[in-house]
Amino acid sequence: MLGLKLATDPRWVNIVESNIEEILTDHAWCEQKAASNAISLVTYNSELEELVTEMLIIAKEELDHLQLVHNLIKSKGLTLGRERKDHYVNELFKFMKKDGSRKDALCDRLLFSAMIEARSCERFKVLSENIKDPELATFYRDLMISEAGHYTTFLGFARKYADNIDVDKRWAAWIEFETSIITNYGKNETIHG
Q: What's the total number of domains in the chain?
């Protein structure tokens, strides 16, 4: 369903399990950034009522996820660390087209967002199926379902608002680009790392 070409090696979970505090901290900040992204889409596209409505729902869900992760961190006696840079997302950001019409830029921003949600969903699936902690396995399975919904929402809006862009062709380019960079990741105890 997600169209990703390279799956995460399940052995990545062994790295994650070596530092649960780090993965949970990174995950918390990913949720914060996802909420901020949804709010930014509202800010720059306030005239698009349907988009605004859905982005506000997603922003709230992402903040709810942040709270869930923070509660989990506290329940495990861990501490929410400082925000981390997400090198994977920064590389994806460089691929995003920033020229053309406002609608073209919006379309690519939505595809960028869909790509992050797709990889996050895939990573949550790997965690849910391979992590030894049953609480975390259930937690990541539930979040995987939510991320899949966000992915389809972003992709659907890209198709809706595209003017002069062949969205399927551009999405294929995003998939190819993501495939070329994801091989550099999966070696750290971070959601995308």
A: 1
Token code pair at residue 104? 């073209």
193 vs 56, residue with greater confidence: 56
pLDDT bucket at 1, cuts 50 / 70 / 90: low
Residue 192 lies in a domain: no
What type of residue sits at position 148? A
Residue 137, class by beta-carbon neighbours within 10 Å (0-12 exposed, 13-18 middle, 19+ buried)?
Answer: middle
DSSP category for residue 110: H
Dihedral sign for Cα atoms in the order 86, 22, 146, 182: positive
Sign (positive or negative) of CA dihedral 18, 33, 150, 88: negative
Q: Has residue 2 been placed in a domain?
A: no
What is the Cβ-side half-sphere exposure of residue 79, based on CA atoms within 13 angstroms?
2
Residue type, 154: F
The pTM is what? 0.94
Q: Which domain holds residue 24?
A: 13-183
* Separation CA 113–CA 154 (nearest Å): 7
Distance from C-alpha of 27 to C-alpha of 72, rounded to nearest angstrom: 11
Specify the CATH number for the domain of residue 22.
1.20.1260.10
CA 38 vs. chain centroid, Å, equals 11
